[in-house]
Amino acid sequence: MNSTTTPRDDASAKAAVELNGSARWSVAVQDAELKFPAAAETFSCALGVKVSPETTPRLYTMLRRTLVDTGLSTYPTKTKFQRPRPFMVNNAPMCTPQDEAELRKDGSYPSGHSAIGWGWALILAEAAPDRATEVLHRGRAFTQSRVVCNVHWLSDTEEGRMMGAATVAKLHDNADFKADMEAAKAEILAARAAGHLPTRDCAAETAALANG
Question: Which of 2, 70, 115, 184 could crosslink 59 through cysteines, CB 3.0-4.6 Å?
Fold first, then answer.
């Protein structure tokens, strides 16, 4: 957004372009999907359990609700700045070409996906504190996927994480949110006990994320 962030943004965008077609690129394509039920599985490997309407219904609903809260938190700033996205500047491919027309009209700063992903990470780290390290690592990787996709600058994702964190902090004043959190904690423990394992290839995901 300014002279201090531009060199970092340019360098990270250039490095991300080199990942086009890689396994890390494929994870970034997955992370771009915010529609349910697919999006519910994003953190399943980090949690060690399958997240779905059947295995963790309250958590599943909680993720859907907070997607709206965290994502919309970025729009006043997006509308104000209307920052061009990396693919509009460097003319390199982006990971979801089907979304190009829409993204060209939607400001890059701050990243809505990053607000959502980091918000989810904070929620899930609280719901499963014994997996907090893995969940937060996955949340950061989710935000980095937007850079890998060539649709957001690094500073967009950093500010997106700030917006996600602020939104989740505010949600802790909401009685329904607190009730959902307690239910989610119980559901995760029950899903583990029942052996509801992730359906994603977690080893492949881990290997991919180690490369960007």
Answer: 184
- Yes or no: say if 131 and 117 are a contact pair by the CB < 8 Å rule: no
Whole-prediction pTM value? 0.95
The enclosing H or E element of 162 equals: helix 154-171
Q: CB neighbours of 60 closer than 8 A, spacing ≥ 6? A: 36, 37, 40, 51, 52, 53
Residue 152 catalytic? yes
What is the structure's pLDDT at 170? 97
Per-residue pLDDT at 117:
98
Which token pair is 79?
A: 């509308």
What b/e string do you get for 116-133 counting C-beta neighbours within 10 Å, with b at 16 or more?
A: bbbbbbbbbbebbeebbe
> Is 113 known to be catalytic?
yes
Catalytic residue among 31, 69, 156, 180: 156
Give the Cα separation of 32 and 39 in Å (integer): 9
Q: Is residue 146 annotated as part of the catalytic site, yes or no?
A: yes
Of 152, 161, 180, 196, the active-site residue reads: 152
Is 176 among the residues known to form the active site? no
Catalytic residue among 24, 113, 138, 196: 113
